[in-house]
Amino acid sequence: VLLNLFDYEANAERALPPRVWDAIAGGAKDEITTRRNRLAFHELLLRPRRLRNVDGRSQATTVLGETISLPVMLSPAGVHNIAHPDGEKATAIGAGRAGTLLMLSTFSSFTIEEVAAVATGPLWFQLYYQRDTAESLLRRAASAGYKAIVITVDVPVASPKERDLRHTGPTRTWPPVDSANLDETQSDQQRHAYQEAQLTFGELADLKSVTSLPLVIKGIMTAEDARDAVDAGADAILVSNHGGRVFDGSLSSIEALPEVVAAVGTRAEIYLDSGIRRGTDVIKALALGARAVSVGRPFFYGLAAGGADGVVGVLEILRAEIDSAMANCGVTSFDQIDASVVRVPDHWIETVTRAQAATLR
Ligand SMILES: Cc1cc2nc3c(=O)[nH]c(=O)nc-3n(C[C@H](O)[C@H](O)[C@H](O)COP(=O)(O)O)c2cc1C
């Protein structure tokens, strides 16, 4: 039986070929940051509250004006079809049925338009910024009805994972990062490219004139960068270390959240991904100032278990766990959740203080 996201994970490991499993589960280098994304949640402790009438709990919230029925979105990820042949179509259908939104990756296995044609919930489009392709991708996303643009800024150089290289040898990459959105009219290099190495906050500001959709900047991990992103026009920040898949040895995303919230929490919506596996993780992130969270690997585990149904299964588990955590924390809606819900360990306090000092600079 699949009682929780770890059951879905173990089921996916059994169901998928080893190289597909490794491509989804793996992290950069020694995978210290991938593990830390989980361990840091263990260090945060919740403070239960009693006798506060917790009848009528609601998880509905909004992200950039879109209503979602639980505070969990689906992070952008390439090539969903490695876990299920229906790929992003299945994920989008699952997201819609569960009442949340999908961020479609530049490296999707179905096109921007194909996914929009079957989606029943809101879609955001994730861009790896390349000067030559950005404008046309942004235009296509807007005309297909995508509601926001997520710019991923945490892949300054390609960083193939050692788990993947062991399956393919060092000269080939797996999984095939080959975007269905970019056709043969683009060079091979463009179709496989992440963000440009020369990308700066200046180009981000320029994008504001190319698209009228709101911008979410994904991959911010410090107060300093959060401030630069918002100054450049970001409407929301997705605090993320890419699930530990790019740069090993960096902070967990939940440890980075307090300084980002302290720096720009009044100027932009703040979301978090990397390591969310339990409803209590979601409540901890909300308590430290996130408006919503998102998940990456878990929906792949759902896809492996049964396409759209599996994605819904994963999201419904999180919904039930969040509901129970809300009741135990004595709240019925998210505006009642603040920092008093969690105890932050002593050795985290320094980070918070430094960030608050940074906002005064
Ligand atoms: C297989 C896979 C592919 C991914 N591809 C992308 C991508 O194309 N663009 C992107 O911004 N993030 C990508 N990510 C990172 C996710 O958006 C997200 O930050 C990460 O998975 C969150 O951590 P979690 O897996 O612990 O939930 C990918 C993640 C996985 C697992």
Attribute tags:
single chain, 361 residues, alpha/beta, eight-stranded parallel beta sheet, two-stranded antiparallel ribbon, 45% helix, globular, binds flavin mononucleotide
List the helices and strands and how they pair.
Elements (H helix, E strand, L loop, with lengths): L4 H11 L2 H8 L6 H12 L1 E2 L14 E3 L2 E3 L3 E3 L12 H12 L3 E3 L7 H7 L4 E5 L3 H13 L5 E4 L9 H7 L19 H4 L9 H10 L4 E6 L2 H9 L4 E4 L13 H12 L4 E4 L6 H9 L4 E4 L1 H33 L12 E2 L2 H14 L2
Parallel strand pairs: 4-11, 5-6, 6-7, 7-8, 8-9, 9-10, 10-11
Antiparallel strand pairs: 1-12, 2-3
Helix pairs in contact: 1-13, 4-5, 4-13, 10-11, 11-14, 12-13
The structure holds flavin mononucleotide (FMN).
The site of flavin mononucleotide has 23 residues, from helix 2.
